[in-house]
Write a structure and sequence with these properties.
Number of helices: 13
Oligomer: single chain
Largest sheet: 5 strands, parallel
Structural class: alpha/beta
Order of helices and strands: HEHEHEHEHHHHHHEHHH
Number of strands: 5
Strand order of the largest sheet: 2-3-1-4-5
């Protein structure tokens, strides 16, 4: 990542943290369980490690920060997962975050179209694994540190460690989460599906779909991450057949 992109990413993340803090205060507003929000025009399901930082930056710059409402762990994504109502300010046009589809969302946000971004499953899992190791602030990293990095074999070889972790059932949800986020919603129910591998091309397509200009800039790209070895890629395909099934089904819209 060049110096200019690093500066933009740093400033963007600082401003986004402040925005999230303000949104958390707004979330204290009591919401009637039967409330609906016809102002929300898009539900954006963000599968982890699918160009999230770049997409958030583009949406905020294109739509305006006050028109993007977030639903991550710190802003009640779990409520959306349960089908509960999450308050959105009247200015919000897009609800974006780590939440899965629930049929109640069709009632709560009756005018909202749906979008999702995908990434080749083994590459997404490899990126997530490296994110855990680099950031060192997740429950998954604590498990890896306490149970695996004390073994010299795993400490010296990330590919060997990844090979082991993808066979552990306790990491199955994180490595194979396409089916979790889509929750049975078929490809023809999405109004837009983007691919991380074709981000530059697909963000322009999204801009056309939204009828607005979106900045085409790739942020938060991890530096120094080695490529996934073919042995692990093939093993992942065997272990996570359902993940590929969901992925290929969604790509029918492309």
């Amino acid at each position: 990542m060049n110096k200019l992109v690093r500066i933009v990413a740093s400033k963007y993340n600082d401003s986004r943290r402040l925005a999230l803090e303000n949104r958390l205060k707004q979330h204290q507003v009591t919401v009637n369980e039967n409330a609906i929000f016809p102002n929300v025009e898009w539900l954006s399901y963000h599968i982890p490690k699918t160009a999230g930082t770049s997409l958030r930056f583009a949406l905020e710059k294109g739509m305006g920060l006050n028109k993007v409402q977030y639903a991550y762990k710190e802003t009640f994504a779990s409520e959306l997962n349960k089908g509960n109502c999450v308050w959105c300010p009247p200015s919000a046009k897009l609800l974006h975050g780590h939440f899965k589809y629930h049929p109640n969302q069709d009632v709560i946000y009756p005018n909202a179209r749906k979008m999702i971004w995908l990434r080749e499953p083994s590459e997404r899992a490899w990126s997530l694994f490296n994110h855990w190791l680099n950031v060192k602030n997740s429950v998954q990293f604590e498990i890896i540190r306490d149970e695996f990095l004390c073994d010299k074999r795993f400490a010296a070889d990330k590919h060997l460690l990844f090979n082991h972790l993808i066979q552990e059932t306790r990491f199955e949800k994180q490595f194979g989460c396409n089916s979790f986020y889509t929750n049975g919603l078929s490809h023809d129910n999405y109004d837009f599906i983007g691919r991380t591998e074709h981000y530059a091309e697909d963000i322009n397509k999204l801009a056309e779909r939204l009828k607005m200009q979106l900045p085409n800039l790739t942020l938060n790209r991890a530096a120094g991450v080695s490529s996934l070895c073919n042995k692990n890629r093939e093993l992942f395909k065997v272990l996570f057949k359902n993940e590929y099934s969901t992925y290929n089904e969604l790509l029918k819209l492309k």
